[in-house]
Amino acid sequence: MTKRILLTMLVGIVGIGLVSSADGTFSGRSWSELVFDPDVGFTDIDLGLEATCAIGYVAFSGDSLVTLRGQWIWQGFAATGEVGAFHAQANVLFSGSSAAYLYGEIILNASIAGVDFAFYSAQLADTVYGGAADGFAIQAAGSVGSFGMVSVTEVGAQIEDDDFTGISIVHTSTGRDRHYMTNPCVVGQGFTGQKFTLSHFDFGCSEEITVTVYFTCDGFDYARVSVEGLTISNLAWLVIDAELKFELEEKSLALTPKLVLGHIACFDLYASLDNEANMMSIDAISIDGIEFACQIGPVSVRNVSLFAPCDLALTTERYGSVVLPIVDILAKGMDYYPDYWEMFSIAYAGAACCEGEYNFLANVYFDEDSTSLFDWAMTHIEATIPYGESLAFTFGMEVAADGLDHLGFGFEAIW
Amino acid sequence: MTQRIRGAVIVLAAIAIAVGVTACMNWFTGVETPTLLLGEVTIIGDRGEILLSAKNMPGGGLASLAVVLGGIAYESDKVSDVSVEGLLGFIVVAQEFDSNDGGFLLAHSCSGLLDGAFAKIVFTATGDPALANFTVTGADISMEDDNGNAIAFDLGTGIEFYAK
User: Fold this and answer.
1) Could you report the per-residue pLDDT of A239-286, keeping only the tens digit for each?
2) Which of A40, A172, A188 sits opposite B159 (nearest CB)?
3) Which of B15, B91, B80 has its CA nearest to residue A138?
4) B48 neighbourhood in chain A, CB within 8 Å
5) What global pTM score does this model have?
6) What does the DSSP assignment read for A325-359?
7) Relative to the CA of B103, which of A29, A129, A196, A265 has its CA 20 to 30 Å away?
8) pLDDT at A192 exceeding the cut of 80
């Protein structure tokens, strides 16, 4: 039944887009990227096409990933529509090689009487290991006075938030993945969870108190009270985050002290406190990393040095080159650089002479085990070079100590 | 206006609680056993790869994996120069590949991995790699989680896509 509903809604949205495009102003964007591996030659080609029609406010797009190993990995379609206070979005993914249906998602948003409602529905086919599954979730968010309230009712699906990570469909042979917001968890329908979050309590001593209560089909699952930024008189450099969690058979209290050293000129410190022996005493302060960043006109310069290789790491460019605890990186399924202890980055973004925008990024990484000059290990370069208003060329390259690792180039056209 | 909003939120909360306590119709059925996924052989030019991925790893995630010597076998006239490379912080502690078979030990240097690709077997294709007949059985593989406990797992082959 759900499959039928999903398919009907998708066809409806796509149909509206196609019908509208027959009369409306047609615009769109297409892009491609050809990837070259020096060891083996050309390896992958990313193709994308997005068409937008002004009439009906419906946009329809599709994108493909084809490897030059002879694999058409997947074909994705997406549609968005907006009518008055309602906003709709649909995504569907098919296997490229077998044309098998893999995943479908529909998200509807509306704001009614000051309450923001969202309906998330998704289906995972049994052609994906971990499927079959389907379900939906309804989210409602509003405020009463200064309090914020969010309710999520899960009927076989979880949505991406602070507790859940959404879903990624991964191609087993290449590791390439697609990420979506709605994670269907069960086969068939039925209530599976209810979460209430109340936020913005302020008792004067803290920045914010958040209360979260979660029920599942088993009944009460947990209640969590989180307090951020507890300050202590005369210790302006120290704040404490506290989390009190009640579960059916246990209660836990986690105190996380944080150093507040402020923004010292262009420098930021990543520091941690050692209080493992006694939660209420601080045995040591560790400087785990230091970051320098400054902006000079259109040029931004950044340098990150990390001294705790098993605690902090830099995510790859795809995940924003941010510094995060390795445990969090792995739990969220992100990719990171485990070997590089330092990164120097320079980026430029500026208007081109004839519309469009230049973008350039160069990240240089250093590895203490490297035998190259200054421990240089790898350089990552990305660039976008506009050619007029509607065409831009893209370029990407990675060079490591043992030679060229990656070379990609493509174009993006807007009409 | 504020009263209307308050009323809407209260009604919504009441409905949600009512659904929660009365409408349980299904239990979660998506619980899955830990699985080691072996990707299909991919070839470009004369270079081949097999990606190894973890799914649903318990106990803080996959921390180490060992394949006994001879645990992975292949046709010597189809492939050569076989080796294994770690990904996402997994390092190769030991590896040995002969003309027909081999084995290796991988470990994460800091933490554990719940889901995702963590290593790849690379080789030079000297014949039709589709006929290389890579074989490995679960009995020759052992895995430990981040707490040092052995992981009971399924071996997944021929799986095109997985969800994480």
Assistant:
1) 777 888 888 888 877 777 666 666 555 777 787 767 666 666 667 777
2) A172
3) B15
4) none
5) 0.79
6) EHHHHHHTT--EESS--EEEEEEEEEE-BTBSEEE
7) A129
8) yes
Nearest CA-CA partner of A325 in A256, A399, A253 = A256
* Residue A16 binned pLDDT confidence (cut-offs 50, 70, 90): very low
Out of A103, A144, A311, whose CB is closest to B6?
A: A144
Tell me the sheet residues that pair with A28: A51
Q: Which helix (H) or strand (E) holds A295?
A: strand A284-296
Which positions ≥6 away from A320 have C-beta within 8 Å? none
Tell whether omega for the bond before A140 is within 30 degrees of 0, i.e. cis. Answer: no
- Sketch the domain layout of chain B as residue ranges: 1-31, 35-157
Longest dimension (CA), chain A: 71
| Burial status of residue A151 (CB atoms within 10 A of its CB: 0-12, 13-18, 19 or more) | buried
Residue B162's closest chain A neighbor by CA? A129
Question: Is A333 within 8 Å of B44 when comparing Cβ atoms?
Answer: no
User: What is the residue-wise DSSP string for A137-166?
Assistant: EEEEEEEETTEEEEEEEEEBEEE-SSS---
Q: Which chain B residue has its CA at the smallest distance from A43's CA? A: B44
Contact B16 A333 (CB under 8 A): no
| Closest Cα in chain A, distance from residue B142 (Å) | 21
Q: For A151, which of B12, B30, B46 is closest by C-beta distance?
A: B12
Cβ pair A107, A181 in contact under 8 A: yes
Contact of A158 with chain B, judged by CB distance below 8 Å, is answered with no
In percent, the amount of chain A with pLDDT more than 70 equals 79
CA distance B83 to chain A (A): 16
Contact between B20 and A151 using a beta-carbon 8 Å cutoff: no
Beta bridge partners of residue A245, listed in sequence order: A224, A252
Amino acid in position A159:
I
**Fold category of B35-157 in CATH:** Immunoglobulin-like (2.60.40)
Spell out the alpha helix ranges (H) of A176-295: none
B39 to A143: CB separation less than 8 angstroms, yes or no: no
Residue of A214, A222, A164 lying closest to A193 (CA atoms):
A214
Closest chain B CA to residue A309: B110
Q: Is B19 within 8 Å of A191 when comparing Cβ atoms? A: yes
List all residues of chain A from 347 to 366 with a beta carbon under 8 Å from chain B. Answer: none
Looking up tokens 């394949």 gives B67
**Under an 8 A CB cutoff, do A142 and B5 touch?**
yes
Q: H helices within chain B, ranges in order? A: 2-22
Q: Among the listed ranges A28-32, A117-121, A366-370, A386-390, which one has the minimum average pLDDT value?
A: A28-32
What lies within 8 Å, CB to CB, of B17 at 6+ separation is A194
A129: nearest CB among B27, B42, B163: B163
CB of B127 closer than 8 Å to CB of A68? no
